[in-house]
Amino acid sequence: MLNLEYLNDLNEAQYEAVSYIDGPLLIVAGAGSGKTKVLTSRIAHMIKQKKAFPNQILAVTFTNKAAREMQNRVSKILGKEATGLSWLGTFHSISAKILRKHAQAVGLKSNFSIIDQDDQLRLIKNISKAENIDIKKISPNVILSTIDRWKNKGWYPDDVILNKKDLLEKNFLEIYKIYQNKLIDLNSTDFGDLILHCVKIFERNKDIKEIYSKNFKYILVDEYQDTNHIQSKWLLSLAKYHNNISCVGDDDQSIYSWRGAEIKNFLEFDKIYENTKIIRLEKNYRSTQNILSVASKLIENNQNRVGKKLFTNGESGDLVSLNCYRSVKDEAIDISDKIEKYKKDFSLNNMAILVRAIFQTREFEERFLKIGLPYRIIGGIKFYERAEIKDCIAYLKIVHQDQDDLSFERIINVPKRSIGETSLKHINEFAKKNKITLEDAAKKLIEKNEIKPKTKLGLITLLNQIEKWRNDFVNKKIGHIKLLQIILDESGYSQMLKNKKDLENENRIENIKELLSAMKEFDNLESFLEHVSLATSIDKNWEGDKINLMSMHASKGLEFDVVFLPGWEEGLFPHQKSIEEKGEKGLEEERRLAYVGITRAKKIANISFSMNRFYQGDWIDCLASRFIDELPEENLKKNNHINHDQIDDFEFNQDVEFDGEIQSPGWKRYQKKLKSN
């Protein structure tokens, strides 16, 4: 008699999804509905029912972590019967396995190497130089992202359809041709090639495609909403013979279009695969009903979705808190006070602050450092430790005092000034020998004409700029905020970031704008630099319990007892750039991102916005996000934290006595810190 205990704790919809074996199946799995459990139970059921041997099942995930989790869960159910489940892995790992066996079909040897992004960029740079393309004007990162986009679409160089509005794409295509030929010469592939080559092999060699499509009796795919065009094509090639493909995902959590994900793969699944069965997993095991109702009502405003409505048999829970603040600073203070309160019932590890843009963490980091509240940044780096922020600080430090060799060394070739490692070593050795600063050493070596002409030109330009910035600043022609703005422009740093048109550099630009905002809170450069030094040196050894700060994108797949969602302001969320570039599609993806953020919360969700925000050193008025108007009133508790009688120039760190009832634990802790210093 078969042991089918793994079926016993499935709800009705989950049971249907597990037991429906043959034919195409789309499982619309809402947040917290147990999709991994369903996937692993399906694999186990196929094997238990003798529908297929383990090596006849193809199970595809997006991450190695997800693949390992699936393997472990299946093994727990099946034990030794799981042996031979050899086709469980990521799109890339499975493609690499296939490609090793048929490498010759695309001009490779079976021992080909897979190059990483650093090697890709190095190759692009070499090709660009050979083709006389100025990499200062056309970033290798931009070229590489364009090539990746073409590969995601399933295009070899000969397949590319140029965007006539983008005049540079013609140049990129020439580089792509050379790049692809070079990879073949090197017996190498990049990650994009792994899937692309497999698809091309299947298209050009029906016998090879038949081997795999016949072998894979059943195909299962996790997070199907995140697939791109070439991945969808890859799956279709393999599913053709048996037509037994089951895909699990949530169209309402499709938030990665900037990575190439195409939501239409999910929305049009039943058109791609005829006679598709659609099963909805709507019972949520994570969140309270109030949280689910807010998320569901919000996402209903999207037109392009399969549709579902989450529910729970659990408690209604607290109403979702909607908070309005005078400023971002007030928002950070109140959230930190709420965290102190929630600490009585929840650990810091089970609390999270989810932001739309990573620059938003700065205000919270400053506040937490001030009151001694431990925190971690997930999927990112602490604000003052980010490379672009450290670069800016280094420039300010070297203007402030000329003996800061560490700062001089950091910025000497940022942006590129043809000052390589050899030249820097020469300057360092001369400085050490003569017991002078690096800056003075550079000047002396120029006088002695002991610097190469190209390097000499770059050094002279930098030294003249530093002298000018110092004079203007010392003579009080400019303030510390204006100083940084001038440095960024005249050094070429701003242009360097603008030339690299990718998401990473857009975030860097936003971080620098936030730095300018932070500087406005200080009267002079000295006090600001002192603040930065203290902020980067204290509490680095926090262990154990910490509040989590991360972007909403980074939060997907995670869950927390308490979630804070600050910065719901028009232009920031939904992000203006997303709407400008993608119109209604962009707006719907932003709304899906909001849905993801809300559904990370298990017990308590706090949404907030500010009426004012510092931006590039100036106050701007903010409007509440349009998403707030879409939230259901009956599931909200609205709180207005704006006290119009409040003293405008009040600062948290003032040594002021308060009535006991409004002294937060954080405030008390900060006062103790002041007295101990």
User: What is the CATH topology assignment of the largest domain?
Assistant: Rossmann fold
How many separate domains? 4
| The CATH C-level class name of the largest domain | Alpha Beta
> CATH superfamily name of the largest domain?
P-loop containing nucleotide triphosphate hydrolases
| Overall CATH architecture of the largest domain | 3-Layer(aba) Sandwich
Q: What level of helicity do the residues show? A: 40-55%
Helical segment tally?
29
Give the overall pLDDT as a whole number.
87
Radius of gyration, in Å, reads: 28 Å
Strand content: 5-15%
Taking the sheet with the most strands, its summary is: 8 strands, mixed
Low-confidence stretches: 644-667
> What sort of overall outline do the alpha carbons produce when their principal axes are compared?
globular
Task: Specify the structural class.
Answer: alpha/beta
In total, the number of strands is 16
Tell me the span between the first and last alpha carbons: 73 Å
Describe the structure in brief:
With 677 residues, the protein is of the alpha/beta class. It contains 29 helices and 16 strands.
